[in-house]
Amino acid sequence: MKKAIFCLVLCLVALPVLADTIVIGNPPDPGSGNSFPFGAAYNAEYQQVYSNSNFSGIGSAISITDIYLYNTQYNSGAGSTPSGTYTINLSSTTAGVGTLSGAFSANEGADETQVFNGSIQQAWNFGNTLDIHLSTAFTYDPGSGKNLLLDVVGNGISIPINIYYDVNSNAGFQRVYCSFGQACGDNGTVDAPGYGLVTGFGYNTVPEPGTLLMMGTGLVGVVGAIRRRIL
User: Fold this and answer.
1) What is the pTM of this model?
2) What average pLDDT does the chain have?
């Protein structure tokens, strides 16, 4: 009896979690790229907002675990990614494509969460994908109507040869940055809507509360049936 209950509880805890990646901005602009903020000596703040409509095919809240940047269009001959420390935050924001502010603080959502703090330095070859594995997963629900904001701050960043990651000039995102990669306080330069880094988000699906309740209710019923048969 105890073994049966344990197995049922284990099944509830170990509900299937589906891992996947969504890439925003494909196909990239051919033969082009941009080095801010992960491919240059960028010692300042950088933000990029992604419209919630980019996530419409997912249909539920997701737990973001990785951020991917791609280098498939422009070969600068770089042999390594930058040294130094990057601090990355994610948040759900009402700022959107076309309404992004040059004041970084005005774009931040109330749930802003630090998801990474550290180095991304590694050997590099043209065609590689930069995988920034987050130390803290971030839960984002596109159904909330809010957009996803990526906030990056570089400190002590240097690189011998810039890496130019894939970009798109007509996608569902927008960015604000500090010119020349030098700190500009809360007064960034806003690019035209649609321009930004092609970005992949690795994620796990988050089971909806209703699904958990139904599973729990069903398992309780099964446990009850087992108890009745034993008694």
Assistant:
1) 0.85
2) 88
